[in-house]
Design brief:
Blueprint (H helix, E strand, L loop, with lengths): L7 H7 L5 H9 L8 E5 L5 H6 L5 E5 L3 H11 L5 E5 L15 E7 L7 H10 L1 E11 L9 H14 L18 H6 L5 E13 L1 H8 L14 H18 L2 E13 L2
Parallel strand pairs: 1-2, 1-4, 2-3, 4-5
Antiparallel strand pairs: 5-7, 6-7
């Protein structure tokens, strides 16, 4: 079953954006190029290309979930750049022409879903010699550690079990190797890491919407108990909001990988 079934509208509305510092960092990698081409893998609802469109001339959005891709299509419609949508897994992306090359490849909050060696091997064949591969992300409210996120995670576990879910039919399996090591072993072995501290202030409504955008707390996971879960989640969040606020201190990591 698709891990992201039913989540696309919530994803588009409630997922945190990309920090401005990260966008500026990515834009600098293609500064000065005549016709910079962006390839965004696992694009979701198109957050990265939307934020980067002023820095590039051509955007290729790769997303396997048709509902996510439809949201990306709406978000990117009307941009003054060429936008092409590819409804396919990252591993099966086919360049639009034999001589086509990407100058910047972005993978945001999606690398863990991919066959990483296969993707990196594919990118070695369809990127410019001086291309940059950017792998970035920032964890989730499941991994955040604070009084309110701990209480929220415990509530979710009351309904879905102690193991983190990854859709209705499986549990989440974290990779046991740092992405930096995986990139270093690829053709893009020159890796620079940039750490950006982010402070987010949530409302109860935003948190509930965000949860429904995830694979660990999507509405189908709660079955007939979804309304009961939401009632309890809102009460918990309202209580923490009134006593100390719903603040998340996140770390957004950007790995920029290039050929040596």
């Amino acid at each position: 079953m698709n891990e992201f079934a039913t989540t696309a509208p919530y994803y588009a509305a409630y997922r945190p954006g990309i920090p401005a510092e990260a966008i500026a960092l990515l834009a600098r990698t293609v500064a000065g190029k005549q016709h910079p081409v962006l390839l965004d893998l696992g694009s979701g609802t198109g957050q990265v290309p939307l934020a980067l469109h002023e820095a590039v001339s051509e955007i290729h959005v790769v997303e396997r979930d048709p509902d996510m891709l439809a949201e990306a299509d709406k978000a990117l419609a009307g941009l003054p750049v060429t936008v092409r949508l590819h409804n396919t897994p990252a591993e099966q992306f086919t360049p639009p022409a034999l001589d086509w090359q990407a100058d910047l490849v972005t993978i945001c909050r999606a690398f863990h879903w991919m066959d990483q060696p296969s993707v990196l091997s594919l990118l070695n064949k369809c990127t410019a010699a001086d291309a940059t591969v950017a792998v970035m992300g920032d964890g989730s409210l499941w991994t955040a550690r604070s009084a309110w996120t701990d209480a929220l995670r415990s509530l979710i576990q009351d309904y879905t079990g102690t193991e983190r879910r990854a859709g209705t039919d499986k549990t989440y399996s974290a990779h046991d190797r740092p992405y930096r090591e995986i990139l270093a072993e690829s053709a893009f072995g020159q890796v620079d890491e940039h750490i950006i501290d982010v402070e987010r202030h949530w409302t109860t409504e935003q948190v509930v919407g965000y949860l429904y955008s995830t694979s660990f707390a999507a509405r189908p996971l709660f079955g007939v108990h979804v309304d009961d879960f939401e009632r309890r989640a809102r009460a918990l969040l309202d209580q923490h909001a009134s006593s100390g606020g719903l603040t998340e201190n996140a770390v957004f990591s950007v790995l920029l990988a290039r050929r040596p």
